[in-house]
Write a structure and sequence with these properties.
This protein is an alpha+beta fold. The protein contains 3 helices and 3 strands; from the N terminus they run H-H-H-E-E-E. A hairpin with a 4-residue loop joins strand 2 and strand 3.
Length: about 90
């Protein structure tokens, strides 16, 4: 992730993520994704180095954290610490 965001297009990529990024709501594993919070954009450059997901699983950003979301159940399965630079 650091390589992608520090590369020549890093500023543009981060800007596209943060453009629709919902901020920092309280996160809890196995809780529903807040219905009032829009889903952030996931640029292909960010998805490319991540493990490929199957089925209804997607990566999304909330604030500076990356979450693993079950889109069928709307459940947050896991999340990272702050990985997006300020």
């Amino acid at each position: 992730m650091g390589e992608v965001l520090s590369g020549p297009d890093g500023k543009t990529i981060k800007s596209s993520i943060m453009d629709e990024n919902p901020g920092v709501p309280k996160l809890a594993i196995n809780e529903r994704y807040p219905s009032s919070v829009p889903l952030s954009t996931m640029p292909p450059e960010v998805l490319e180095p991540l493990p490929k997901l199957k089925g209804e699983l997607e990566y999304r950003f909330i604030g500076r954290r990356l979450i693993l979301l079950d889109t069928e159940a709307d459940i947050i399965l896991d999340f990272t610490g702050n990985i997006l630079p300020r």
